[in-house]
Design brief:
450 residues, alpha/beta, Rossmann fold, UDP-N-acetylmuramoyl-L-alanine:D-glutamate ligase, Protein-Tyrosine Phosphatase, Chain A, 6-stranded parallel beta sheet, 6-stranded mixed beta sheet, 20 strands, globular, nucleotide-binding, peptidoglycan synthesis, ATP binding, cell shape
């Protein structure tokens, strides 16, 4: 960790805890700052805040009192989930108090270079692939951000011999000032989180922050099949490295005659890759590009791609039972993610779908239902999904109470050679506190079948 004096004797407010807030508060305390932590959860129900209190850090819990901003803070480190419309944040800007997220803090203390991954879909799979490829290539990577340990915690222990591979959300990227990854990846861009950002323009601008401090000594890996990522690349000073599943590109990653290639060099035949799905080829190409730019040999990349079958809850292979392959794609919390899952297979599918009703319809799924032989629905959106299934000509439709009950029903409609696929197209919050819990229950029910 760099021994910086930037925060020595500075008054800093850490707003919102969770894991990133706790780590940031502890780190700032070590760096000599006068830290105040403010979290909405009452102290009696807040063990994290209690632990910080024991370290000698000032803690204010139970509310976000706006008058707290009158105490002369020189910086606010904000939990990424707190929107910029929050009165505390709006008040801070009115007073001229800078607001950052914990990722910026991590960058300032890190001795190791960063490989940063952002985008709408595929971030976690790409981050995991980059990490595994760098590890197999003996590059001593550490994994951080949304997928791993809190970034500033990782940065504390990282040395110049490591590389920090970090998944970055738009929320985190809105709060950076100097953060500058050696290699940045933008997997793709679609409309998302508009309830937080307000407009797609704001959302895309937040994503573009990943490259705002890059120079031509750094690399920006972009999806060459999307105009939106090219728009960001045009305003970047980084060396641009494109990837494409649809065309050949110069100085980048693409597909040629059934091979994945980098800069025209064949790296591996697609038929030998374990991870299914056309959309995963995008993730593979971008991860391969980052790994090649990091000096990883082809043999290490090949070894990872022969064995990597997916991240938990993201088109994750679970089990094969009597010739029926079962996949858990609980992370598919929107229609686009389910479309990508459905197009990953060309064999008959028994689809499990449903969840929180956000007011949208599901007609966009109809063209992708051609391989769906049966639909098992659950949750608030069950009637809507059943309507589009009928319009698509699916005859086998069954509604059940929850994911656990959906599994034996799906098996009943399946036969050898079929795919059972949990890809809900909806958030989980009508029945489960997270998509992870939903996916875990699905996996457990599958194992009970066996």
């Amino acid at each position: 960790m760099k021994k910086i004096e930037t925060y020595l004797h500075k008054k800093i407010l850490v707003l919102g805890l969770a894991k990133s807030g706790v780590t940031a508060a502890s780190l700032l305390h070590k760096l000599g700052a006068f830290v105040t932590v403010n979290d909405k959860k009452p102290l009696s129900e807040n063990p994290a805040a209690q632990g910080l209190l024991e370290q000698g850090i000032k803690v204010i819990c139970g509310e976000h009192p706006i008058e707290l901003l009158d105490e002369g803070f020189e910086l606010i480190v904000k939990n990424p989930g707190i929107p910029y419309t929050n009165p505390m944040i709006e008040g801070a800007f009115e007073k001229g108090i800078p607001v950052i997220t914990e990722v910026e803090l991590a960058y300032q203390i890190a001795e190791a270079p960063f490989v940063g991954i952002t985008g709408t879909n595929g971030k976690t799979t790409t981050t995991t692939l980059v990490f595994e490829m760098l590890k197999k290539g003996n590059k001593q990577p550490l994994i951080a951000g949304n997928i791993g340990t809190v970034a500033s915690g990782v940065a504390e222990t990282a040395t110049k011999d490591n590389a920090i591979v970090i998944e970055l959300s738009s929320f985190q990227l809105m709060g950076i000032e100097t953060f500058n990854p050696k290699i940045a990846i933008i997997t793709n861009l679609y409309d998302a989180h508009l309830d937080y950002h307000g407009t797609r323009k704001n959302y895309f601008e937040a994503k573009s922050n990943i490259t705002k401090n890059q120079t031509d000594d750094e690399y920006l890996i972009i999806n060459a099949d999307q105009e939106e990522t090219f728009d960001i690349a045009r305003n970047s000073k980084a060396t641009i490295v494109p990837f494409s599943t649809k065309k050949q590109v110069l100085n980048g990653a693409d597909i040629r005659n059934g091979w994945i290639c980098f800069d025209g060099e064949r790296v591996m035949e697609i038929k030998d890759i374990a991870l299914p799905g056309t959309h995963n080829l995008e993730n593979i190409l971008s991860a391969m590009a980052a790994s090649k730019l990091s000096g990883v040999e082809n043999t290490a990349i090949q070894e990872v791609l022969r064995t990597f079958t997916g991240v938990r809850h993201r088109l994750q292979f679970v089990e094969e039972i009597n010739g029926i392959k079962v996949y858990n794609d609980s992370k598919a919390t929107n229609i686009l993610a389910t479309v990508k899952a459905l197009t990953a297979f060309d064999t008959p599918i028994v689809l499990l779908a449903g969840g929180l009703d956000r007011g949208n319809e599901f007609d966009e799924l109809i063209p992708y239902f051609k391989n769906v032989k049966a639909l098992i629905t659950f949750g608030e959106t069950a009637p809507k999904l059943e309507r589009v299934a009928r319009e698509a000509g699916i005859k086998n439709i069954k509604r059940v109470d929850n994911v656990e009950k959906a599994v034996p029903e799906a098996y009943r409609y399946s036969e050898s050679g079929d795919i059972i696929l949990l890809s809900p197209a909806c958030a989980s919050w009508d029945q489960y506190i997270s998509f992870e819990i939903r996916g875990d229950i699905f996996i457990e029910a599958v194992h009970k079948l066996k």
